[in-house]
Each structure stands twice: as structure tokens, then as C-alpha cells.
Amino acid sequence: MTHPQDQTGHHVQELPVETPLGVPQEAGVVGRLVERLGFLFAAGIVIAALMLLMEVFLRYVLNRPTIWAHEASTFLCALAFLFGGLYCASRDSHIRVVLLYDLMPAPARRWLDVFISTASMVASGFFAWAAWLMVAKSVWAPSGEIRLERSGSAWNPAIPAWTKIFLFVVMIVMTVQFALFAWNQLRRSGSHRTGDKS
């Protein structure tokens, strides 16, 4: 395997191949699934905005406010923000400082990509464990029966428990996503190293 060359014969940097959805190929099936689910959570933000507009009308025009609009819209936005972190990770578009990264040669950047993805996988795994500890406290009573944590408002939904459960699921999927990135980047780095020897 050889590196691509431009018209002058110099090696050119290979960019990550993206799927038609805009997800890097290295994200795998998890990245493609997360990309498709993104529209669902984006719609949740629109629904939350409509709820708040309805609440303003009911409260200040009809003087009949609801007891659920504020908490429901907050819940939808919270889900969207939590999913947004996974969405950015799957698209490999999370914020990064590239001052030193851009100064390195392409082979070093490929191995640094593997290191960054592995470190992110480990960090996500620790956050998933921390989220599980929160889930355990908000779903099970000390006596062992299921008792979802509630908001304590007049509506009193189990939004705190469901938010923590969703955070746990997101962190598990994010851990898997970074593991896929690390594995595929490692395979790419190995193939480039084999190509260098040929």
C-alpha cells in the first residue's frame, strides 16, 4: 500500500472518509445510528419551544397556566443537550486544541488519533460508572424496590430519574463509539505502516 501523491510526486495527507451522512467511516454503525437519531432530538427542542409558547399564551392571555409545560420542555432540552455530546463525538467534531497536533507529521497524527480516542474511551467509561451510581440512587429505594426519583413539583414527574438513566445510556454508547474510533484508527495506522515498508 502506498500513500497518494500529487502531480509533483509529493505525498499528500489523507483525510478521513465520510459517509453520505457526514459521519466519519471510522465511527462505524454506531456513528451512523447516532446521526439518524439526531433529528429526533432536534425535533424535541422544537417541541419544547412550542410548549413554552403555549404556556405563555395560557398564562398571560387565558390566565390558565399548566403545571407540566416548564418541566416537560426542560426535560426535552436536557435530553437534546446530553445527546448532543454523543452526536458531536460520533461525527468527530468535538472541540479540540490542535496547536501541537497540526505541527506533527501525518504518521504521528494518526497514532495520536488512536491515543486520543483511547483516552476518551477510558474517560467515557469512568463517566458511565459515575452515571450508574446516580441511576442506582434515583431508581432503587434503600429497601431494594424500584422507586423513581421525582421532581417534587405539583406535577411531580419522574424526570430526574429518567434524565439520569438517559445520561447513563449516552455514556455507555459514547464509550463504545470511542472504542470503535480507536480500533479503526489503529487499523488505519497499521495499514499505513505496512504501506511505508512496501
TrEMBL record:
Domain named Tripartite ATP-independent periplasmic transporters DctQ component is located at 49-187
Q: Where is the signal peptide?
A: none
InterPro entries attached to this UniProt entry: DctQ, TRAP_DctQ
Q: What is its main location?
A: membrane
Pfam families with a match to the protein in the record: DctQ (PF04290)
The record's keywords, sorted A to Z, are: Cell inner membrane, Cell membrane, Membrane, Transmembrane, Transmembrane helix, Transport
Indicate where this protein resides in the cell: Cell inner membrane
> What membrane topology does this protein have?
Multi-pass membrane protein
**Organism domain of life:** Bacteria
Chain ranges passing through the membrane:
39-61, 67-90, 111-135, 165-183
The entry's function note states:
Part of the tripartite ATP-independent periplasmic (TRAP) transport system.
Subunit structure of this chain's protein: The complex comprises the extracytoplasmic solute receptor protein and the two transmembrane proteins.
Family to which this protein belongs? Belongs to the TRAP transporter small permease family.
Official protein name in the record: TRAP transporter small permease protein
Species:
Cereibacter johrii
What taxonomic ancestry is recorded?
Answer: Bacteria, Pseudomonadati, Pseudomonadota, Alphaproteobacteria, Rhodobacterales
